[in-house]
Amino acid sequence: AQDVGSMTGIEHPDVILCPNGPMLLRGDHLVEGPDGTLHATTRPVSAVCRCGKSGSQPWCDGTHKVILQS
């Protein structure tokens, strides 16, 4: 069996949704914060909050781990 990357010629996907965690973005993207401000990604891989509870929106700060434990 071949993985999807080898079938499509894409080595790494641009967007990865982590179960119960952030959305990982690879490469250059614009992310809209809760106030409508656009933020450019500045790292090779950026973690975007999906739980809505991060103190550093729109970026993930790991708060989802605490939410899952409670």
Layout of secondary structure:
Layout: H1 4-8, E1 15-17, E2 23-26, E3 30-32, E4 38-40, E5 45-48, H2 63-69
Antiparallel strand pairs: 1-2, 2-5, 3-4
Notes on the structure:
- It is built from 2 helices and 5 strands; from the N terminus they run H-E-E-E-E-E-H.
- It has 70 residues and is α+β, with helices and mostly antiparallel strands.
- A 3-stranded antiparallel beta sheet has the order 1-2-5, with no helix packed on it. A two-stranded antiparallel ribbon has the order 3-4.
- The model is unreliable at 1-8 (pLDDT under 50).
Helix content range? 10-25%
Shape assignment: flat
- State the low-pLDDT regions, or none: 1-8
Total count of helical runs of at least 4 residues: 2
Please state the oligomeric state of the protein chains shown. Answer: single chain
Radius of gyration: 14 Å
Q: Please, what is the average pLDDT?
A: 85
**First-to-last CA distance:** 40 Å
Q: Give a count of the beta strands, DSSP E runs of length 2 or more.
A: 5
Major beta sheet summary: 3 strands, antiparallel
| Strand portion | 15-25%
- Largest beta sheet: strand ordering: 1-2-5
Order of helices and strands, N to C?
HEEEEEH
Structural class designation: alpha+beta
